[in-house]
Every structure is written in C-alpha cells, then in structure tokens.
Amino acid sequence: MRIEKITTDKKRFLDLLLLADEQEDMIDRYLERGDLFALFDPDLKSLCVVTDEGKGTCELKNLATCVHYQGQGYATRLLEHVFRSYSGKYETLLVGTGEIPRILAFYKRCGFTFSHRLKNFFTDNYREPIVECGVRLVDMIYLRRSL
C-alpha cells in the first residue's frame, strides 16, 4: 500500500471525487487549492483533498473510496496519513458532512467531535437535492479534530 500526493492533473480523479461531492463545480472550488492524496493497494482505492483554511486550521473537503473497497479500512488509513502529515503544521482539522449516522459514526471513530452546523448548506449550494441513505441532506455538520 502506498499514499501519493498528487500535484498535477487532479481532475483525472473526478469520477471518484464525485462519490463524496456530487457537484463538479463545488469540487472545482477546492481541488486546485487543496492537497490531493491518493491511496493505492496496488491500484487506486481511496483519495482525499485537504485545504488550508488559515489560522491553524485545515479542512478535509473530500474523502472517497471506490465502491467495491468501502468498509475495508482504506479511508481510515488515508485519514491517519493526513493526521500525521498535518500534525505540527495545523492545530485543527475540520470536516463538513451531511447528517448521516453511518458517516458521523465513522468520523467519531477517527477522533472527530461536533463543531458546528451550517443551516441549509446543501439546499442553498447544490442545484439538485442530495439524498444519501434515504435522507435528503439539508444542513452541513462540521466536525473537528485536534492535530
């Protein structure tokens, strides 16, 4: 297993990025300014994008694992790499997600705690309704983890 920081042609990973963020123009807002990490074992399994948000804070903007490999620990390993890579450089890592119990439980297992809520984020910023696990996403739930 290896993790690579991707610095060029980041859009070649768009199909996988769209699993975690369903609207391309939203991905365009952060992809080029963020660090893109890809986990290979031996082929691509998971990726994430981390951005500098200033004042000692970075944000996990996208974390996606190929459908056939979900639940096998690849996203956890990628997050552990992010924790190690950004520790000492930042104080806090934020992540925003929908109010889906399974996803919130995953981030809690990874050491995140509730930070704040952005009311109507998904309804105000996405053209089409986003439904995950049968739940229409409305608010963005922000979680934080000290690094």
Describe this structure in words.
By secondary structure, this protein is an alpha+beta fold. Helices cover 27% and strands 37% of the residues. The protein is built from five helices and nine strands, in the order βααβββαβαβαβββ. It has helices spanning 14-20, 24-28, 74-86, 101-109, 121-125; strands at residues 2-6, 35-40, 44-54, 57-65, 92-97, 113-118, 131-132, 135-136, 140-146. A seven-stranded mixed beta sheet has the order 1-2-3-4-5-9-6, with helices on both faces. A hairpin with a 2-residue loop joins strand 3 and strand 4 (57-65). The protein is globular and about 35 Å long. The two termini are 24 Å apart. The relative contact order is 0.16. The mean pLDDT is 96.
What would the keywords be for this entry?
seven-stranded mixed sheet; 147 residues; alpha+beta; globular; two-stranded antiparallel sheet
| Proportion of strand residues | 35-45%
Terminal-residue CA separation: 24 Å
Give the number of helices: 5
Order of helices and strands: EHHEEEHEHEHEEE
| Mean pLDDT value | 96
Spatially, the strands of the biggest sheet line up as 1-2-3-4-5-9-6
- Low-pLDDT ranges: none
Task: Give a brief rundown of this model.
The chain is of the alpha+beta class and 147 residues long. Helix content is 27%, strand content 37%.
Fold blueprint:
Layout: E1 2-6, H1 14-20, H2 24-28, E2 35-40, E3 44-54, E4 57-65, H3 74-86, E5 92-97, H4 101-109, E6 113-118, H5 121-125, E7 131-132, E8 135-136, E9 140-146
